[in-house]
Specification:
- The complex is a heterodimer of chains A (41) and B (256).
- Chain A is mainly α and 41 residues long.
- Chain A is built from 2 helices and no strands.
- Helix content of chain A is 90%, strand content 0%.
- Chain B has 256 residues and is an alpha/beta fold.
- Chain B has a single domain, classed as Alpha-Beta Barrel (TIM Barrel), CATH 3.20.20.370.
- Helix content of chain B is 45%, strand content 18%.
- The chains are: A mainly alpha (41), B alpha/beta (256).
- At the A-B interface, helix 1 and helix 2 of A face helix 7 and helix 9 of B.
Chain lengths: 41, 256
């Protein structure tokens, strides 16, 4: 039971880290975009 | 034509969905020493957000020349007239090191570089400092501030009640407290601030802030300081404001 729990936690943590990494790439690009800056003006 | 209507319907539905999620946009620590830079930064942020924002003002004038102090007062008045919301942000944003504090307060001073001026004070000293803060505002500002934000969000166990006796809103790290007829209403909210992080962590912290705003729950506070314009950069800050404004509706404390 504890082994299953640990493996599940590990998988969820890894998946969260991967998703956060991709979101980080997306945000980094978004915040640097010139066109995005101009939209509000 | 029909297709255009569908797109408009979808956009309206999305806009309605986003409006359920709200955030507060607040510029912290405008003072007599930095207001010349801060006033431009505040107006740029408000321009990116599409409406006036909340401003946390440090009311102490300090040792600036009288001509600059007058200009600072005029600028505050202008902000109030333009619809910006004023929050009081301590008295000097600098702790008096000769005042007695408890151990927690001393630790707060250590980690905040002596900026947490209310941390660890007893009730009498808290009340005195709070009154000094308001007196400084009355001497330099116009109207009554909506609320009180302790510097670095470090208060003490007396500050919340004492602040709510004077102001309508008070906030700490965990939430925003509002004075109502039935007592005190708490709104769950996290401050998303960047000024205390080292440059190497700023990218991750910005992603975390955007993610927090994307996910449901809470009326979080997006907080910018003068320092952020040098460390993060104006373009990224304004883009972040625009991006978050597409996900959540910007409100002020008084709209809570």
């Amino acid at each position: 039971m504890s082994d299953w729990l640990f493996k599940s936690w590990l998988k969820i943590s890894a998946l969260t880290a991967i998703l956060f990494f991709f979101y980080h790439l997306f945000i980094s690009q978004k915040l640097e975009e010139e066109s995005f800056s101009d939209k509000g003006k | 034509m029909e297709q255009n209507k569908d797109i408009l319907d979808i956009q309206a539905a999305e806009a309605n969905l986003h409006k359920k999620k709200k955030f507060i946009l607040c510029y912290h620590s405008i003072s007599a020493t930095n207001f010349k830079r801060a006033r431009n930064q505040i107006r740029k942020i408000a321009d990116a957000a599409g409406s006036p924002i909340s401003i946390a003002v440090v009311p102490s004038i300090g040792a600036v020349p009288e001509s600059e102090a007058d200009e600072f007062r005029e600028e505050l008045e202008k902000f109030v007239q333009e619809g910006y919301e004023i929050m009081l942000h301590g008295a000097r944003h600098r702790a008096d090191l000769f005042i007695k504090r408890n151990l927690q307060g001393k630790f707060a001073l250590w980690i905040s570089n002596n900026e947490a001026e209310f941390a660890g004070l007893n009730e009498r000293l808290t009340q005195t400092l709070l009154k000094r803060s308001l007196a400084l505002w009355n001497a330099n500002g116009t109207g009554k501030p909506s609320g009180f934000i302790p510097p670095i969000w470090f208060g003490n166990k007396y500050l919340k009640n004492l602040a709510l006796d004077i102001f309508d809103y008070y906030e700490d790290y965990h939430g925003i407290y509002q004075k109502t007829e039935n007592g005190v209403k708490k709104t769950k909210s996290r401050p998303l601030s960047f000024s205390i992080y080292p440059p190497a962590m700023l990218g991750i912290v910005q992603t975390y802030a955007c993610l927090r705003m994307l996910l449901p729950g809470g009326t979080h506070r997006l907080v910018f300081h003068d320092k952020d314009f040098r460390s993060i950069g104006e373009k990224r800050i304004l883009n972040m404001v625009r991006y978050i404004s597409t996900m959540r509706e910007k409100i002020m404390y008084r709209d809570l």
